[in-house]
């Protein structure tokens, strides 16, 4: 292989929501695209509603003995304490396959709001948090949010409300997906409380489109791959079409160890381990990194070169810094069937349709209890996950920690699985960027191919909990109004690994950011980062729609650069 | 046997911990003395999948004892199916025959059978399977007071629950009877024999890696 005649125009590393749009747009524009994906190429025909393969012996994530993380948390004495996930049992992988974890998402899709792009100027600085405004505005991203609605397929219904973000089109291209009978109860409770429940947009097709089937309502969505193709994964919605164009090539089971840069600082080749565990290299004119926040930072830090002695783009020690998760928490309440009439029970037992309701009443909070006007967040309602094992297994212990068996245990299992309908809520608010949440390379733990694994420090800002608790209390009030029993919720600084962003924030100053406003590395002109790493702040919603939209935006910039 | 791990009272503050704790326990189990049942590999002699219904060959240990324990823990009742009815033993046997099976777990289960029968013989002069209901209950209540005993029973219960609610393709939950008994509505599409977890994705890759590692080892 000669580095002087690149084999591909563009090499995209990672194939999730950050990589898919770039591969798709560049292939559409006629460029030769290579996608390197470390995980397997699983398709609709490989996705079954099998709890063992999804969630007990995951077919979607590496064995921790081969590839893992080191997580750093504060111990009871206030000191940072590191532990490898193979030892702690905490798994920090989300979904490693063609299409990435977008295959496994629930597809709750939210746009950021104009205020999210200027958190610092809108709400002011917060002591101990590294808040910065984005170098682009909502208006820059709006056309791409709209593009995602049609290209990825977002179903929903736009309604006017206090914090509704501006739209360039009147409504969604796809009507909302079918709704569960419990929605009526949520709406009645919200009406009584004077709240406005909003329809939650979903990256799920309610009618067939572009060769994909519509949702078949099996009731098992989040954590599972979609057998109908209705879920808007990067693979089903974009990569399948990119490959059909003949211009996009996907090499699955190819894990990139490092990017090799030359004397001029530009990236020349990607070095990867293939399925046969042989080390190979491939060249391209432009490289795009989209491995999800933690692994993107790991790859860049591991890619030292003549002009990048501390890792690609890390001459100012910014790579891996200001990692974000989603702050907030979750709660639940039961509607026991024993308390309800047979007709209500039958309705609540329905399995398949979605809840699709959220509250953004407190996206901005103006309450003296919180010291005046502050950024709030989103409350999302959803049914308890239908998997049986997480419900059944804990029933073996009584409240005093004694092991149970016999008819007592049988009764408890039956009651846990089918004695009630359980409504969950999730709270999303800003995870403020701090100096205690970042990615580095671990100095001792290596992966199967002797590469250093990512070490992640998991610190959070106390302000995150204050807002999270405020919102969770409101959400619990809705459950209470519904007459739910066993209401409980928790808000903590424990990060949800499936909601990560940051680590390579974009900005205009090379001293404080890794990427420029086009998501191109400040000091490496042929390298772009298009996953959630670019986000300086994350907003108070799930990230996937924003990652998709920004990747489409950056794809246009790359086409212009080529 | 005064040093049977099923006789050592657990510290009241001890609870099952993370992966590391479990590994330590399995390690402990592997060095403690055991009588009655020895050896890592046992022939499977339950009802063959291909045999005529009812043509049941008598079970031998450790399966005989495990079957007795399973059916004591999950009896036929108004609230649920018995272990036999949802094929818990078939599930367990096939689990240990799957690629990527956890043989440490298997070893611990089998050693526990030895400890259980040691205790049964010392208390009742009979093996566990030959005890009546009240004797079985008394013996299990006795061993659950030890850390090893509680962990052993807990592991058996986990596997019973797996047999009850995982897809029938894994040999338990016949025709979805387990799901029906607890009111679980399964999703679709459901896996067929060629779609089991160890045939797909990272689990399939894991099998390949193990082969590669073995080749490397044999090459020295």
Walk me through the topology.
The complex is a heterodimer of chains A (562) and B (220).
Chain A: E1 8-13, H1 20-28, E2 33-36, H2 51-56, E3 70-74, E4 80-84, H3 85-88, H4 119-123, H5 138-153, H6 182-193, E5 198-199, H7 234-244, E6 248-251, E7 255-261, E8 267-273, E9 279-289, H8 293-302, E10 321-324, E11 326-336, H9 342-348, E12 357-359, E13 364-367, E14 372-375, E15 377-383, H10 389-392, H11 406-418, E16 420-430, E17 437-446, E18 452-458, H12 462-481, E19 485-491, E20 501-503, E21 527-529, H13 544-561
Parallel strand pairs in A: 1-2, 1-9, 2-6, 3-18, 9-21
Antiparallel strand pairs in A: 3-4, 5-12, 7-8, 8-9, 10-20, 11-16, 11-19, 12-15, 13-14, 15-16, 17-18
Helix pairs in contact in A: 1-7, 1-13, 5-13
Chain B: H1 19-31, H2 63-73, H3 88-97, H4 103-124, H5 133-143, H6 147-165, H7 177-182, H8 201-219
Helix pairs in contact in B: 1-4, 3-6, 4-6
Q: Approximately how much beta-strand content do the residues of chain A carry?
A: 15-25%
> What is the arithmetic mean of pLDDT of chain A?
97
- Please give the number of β-strands of chain A: 21
Could you say how many structural domains of chain A there are in total?
A: 1
Distance between the termini of chain A: 22 Å
The end-to-end distance of chain B, rounded to whole angstroms, is 43 Å
Computed over alpha carbons, the radius of gyration of chain B is 19 Å
Number of strands of chain B: 0
Poorly predicted segments of chain A:
none
The coarse silhouette of chain B is flat
- Fourth CATH level, the homologous superfamily of chain A: FAD/NAD(P)-binding domain
CATH class of chain A: Alpha Beta
Low-confidence stretches of chain B: 12-21, 33-42, 46-55
Helix content range of the residues of chain B, please?
A: 40-55%
Rg measurement of chain A, Å: 23 Å
């Amino acid at each position: 292989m000669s580095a002087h005649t690149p084999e591909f125009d563009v090499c995209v590393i990672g194939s999730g929501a950050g990589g898919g749009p770039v591969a798709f747009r560049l292939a559409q524009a006629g460029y030769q695209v290579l996608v390197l994906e470390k995980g397997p190429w699983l398709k609709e025909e490989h996705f079954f509603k099998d709890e063992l393969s999804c969630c007990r012996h995951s077919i979607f994530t590496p064995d921790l003995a081969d590839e893992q993380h080191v997580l750093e948390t504060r111990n009871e004495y206030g000191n940072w304490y590191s532990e490898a996930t193979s030892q702690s049992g905490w798994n920090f992988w989300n979904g490693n396959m063609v299409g990435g974890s977008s295959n496994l998402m629930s597809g709750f899709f939210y746009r950021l709001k104009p205020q999210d792009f200027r958190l610092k100027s809108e709400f002011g600085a917060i002591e101990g948090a590294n808040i910065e405004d984005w170098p682009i505005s909502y208006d820059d991203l709006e056309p791409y949010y709209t593009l995602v609605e049609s290209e990825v397929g977002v179903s929903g219904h736009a309604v006017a409300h206090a914090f509704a973000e501006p739209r360039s089109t009147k409504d969604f291209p796809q009507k909302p997906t079918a709704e569960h009978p419990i929605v009526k109860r949520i709406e009645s409770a919200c009406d009584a409380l004077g709240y406005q429940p909003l329809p939650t947009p979903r990256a799920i097709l309610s009618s067939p489109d572009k060769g994909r089937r519509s949702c078949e309502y099996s009731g098992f969505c989040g954590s599972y791959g979609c057998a109908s193709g209705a879920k808007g994964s990067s693979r089903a919605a974009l990569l399948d079409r990119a490959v059909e164009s003949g211009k996009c090539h996907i090499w699955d089971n190819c894990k990139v160890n490092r990017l090799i840069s030359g004397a001029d600082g530009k990236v020349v080749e990607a070095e990867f381990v293939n399925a046969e565990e042989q080390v190979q290299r491939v060249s391209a004119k432009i490289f795009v990194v989209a491995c999800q926040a933690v692994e993107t930072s790991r790859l860049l830090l591991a890619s030292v070169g003549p002009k990048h002695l501390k890792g690609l783009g890390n001459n100012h020690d910014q790579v891996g810094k200001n990692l974000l998760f989603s702050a907030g928490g979750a709660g639940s309440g039961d509607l026991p069937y024993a308390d309800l009439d047979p007709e209500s029970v039958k309705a609540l037992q329905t399995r398949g349709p979605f809840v699709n309701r959220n509250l953004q009443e407190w996206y901005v909070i103006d309450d003296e209890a919180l010291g005046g006007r502050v950024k709030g967040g989103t409350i999302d309602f959803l049914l308890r996950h239908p998997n049986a094992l997480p419900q059944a297994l804990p029933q073996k212990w009584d409240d005093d920690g004694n092991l149970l068996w016999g008819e007592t245990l049988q009764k408890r299992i039956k009651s846990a699985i089918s004695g009630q309908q359980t409504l969950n809520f999730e709270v999303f608010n800003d995870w403020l960027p701090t100096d205690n949440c970042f990615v580095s390379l671990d100095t001792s733990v290596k992966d199967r191919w002797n590469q250093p694994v990512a070490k992640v420090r998991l610190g959070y800002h106390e302000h995150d909990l204050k807002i999270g608790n405020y919102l969770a209390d409101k959400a619990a009030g809705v459950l209470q109004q519904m007459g739910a029993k066993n209401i409980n919720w928790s808000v903590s600084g424990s990060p949800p690994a499936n909601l990560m962003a940051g680590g390579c924030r974009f900005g205009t100053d090379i001293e404080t950011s890794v990427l420029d406003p086009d998501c191109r590395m400040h000091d490496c002109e042929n390298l772009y980062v298009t996953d959630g790493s670019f986000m300086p702040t994350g907003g108070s919603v799930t990230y996937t729609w924003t990652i998709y939209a920004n990747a489409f935006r950056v794809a246009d910039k790359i086409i212009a650069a080529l | 046997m005064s040093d049977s791990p099923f006789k050592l009272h657990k510290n009241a503050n001890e609870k099952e911990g993370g992966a590391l704790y479990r590994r330590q326990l399995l390690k402990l189990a592997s060095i403690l003395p055991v009588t009655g049942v020895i050896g890592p590999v046992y022939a499977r002699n339950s009802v063959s999948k291909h045999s005529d219904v009812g043509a049941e060959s008598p079970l031998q240990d450790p399966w005989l004892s495990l079957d007795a324990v399973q059916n004591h823990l999950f009896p036929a009742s108004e609230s649920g199916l018995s272990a036999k009815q949802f094929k818990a033993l078939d599930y367990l046997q096939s689990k240990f025959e799957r690629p990527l099976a956890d043989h440490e777990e298997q070893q611990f289960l089998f050693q526990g059978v030895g400890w259980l029968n040691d205790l049964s013989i010392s208390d009742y002069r009979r093996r566990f399977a030959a005890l009546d209901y009240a004797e079985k209950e008394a013996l299990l209540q006795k061993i659950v007071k030890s850390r090893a005993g509680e962990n052993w029973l807990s592991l058996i219960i986990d596997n019973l629950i797996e047999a009850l609610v995982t897809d029938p393709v894994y040999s338990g939950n016949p025709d979805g009877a387990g799901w029906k008994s607890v009111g679980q509505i399964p999703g679709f599409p459901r896996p067929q024999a060629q779609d089991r977890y160890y045939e797909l994705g990272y689990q399939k890759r894991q099998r390949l890696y193990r082969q590669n590692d073995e080749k490397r080892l044999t090459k020295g």
